[in-house]
Every structure is written in C-alpha cells, then in structure tokens.
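User: Thanks for the earlier help. One more: DUF2281 domain-containing protein. Can you show the sequence and predicted structure together?

Assistant: Of course, both are below.
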Amino acid sequence: MANLAKKELIMREMEHIPEPLFNEILDFIYFLKTKALKEKLETAIASESSLKKDWLREEEDNAWQDL
C-alpha cells in the first residue's frame, strides 16, 4: 500500500474516532516520532564509533590536509 493511500486511510479512520480519544492518538503519534528519531540517533552513534577507527588514521589525515 502506498504511503499516500495509508495516510488517506488513517485520515478516514480518524473521522470515526470519538473526540475524547484525540489526546491519546496525538500522544501515540508523538511517541512514534520520538521513537523513530531515537533509533536514527542510535544508528548514527553506532556508525560513528565503528567508523572512528578509519577516520583517525594517518592516511585519512594526509588525504584531507589540503582541503
């Protein structure tokens, strides 16, 4: 299912959700956004530590010294 179709389906479903549940839905959306951001950050940190050994070599310093 395409992203747009999923978004449209979510929007249609929202029309049938009782308004008192809106706060819970919004909280869940914020949770998912935070979770995705945290996972992205953790991946970046893991990549940095695994690549650090290559970045801190003399060959790398020499390759970048003229820039």
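User: Great, one quick takeaway?

Assistant: Residues 1-64 form one domain.
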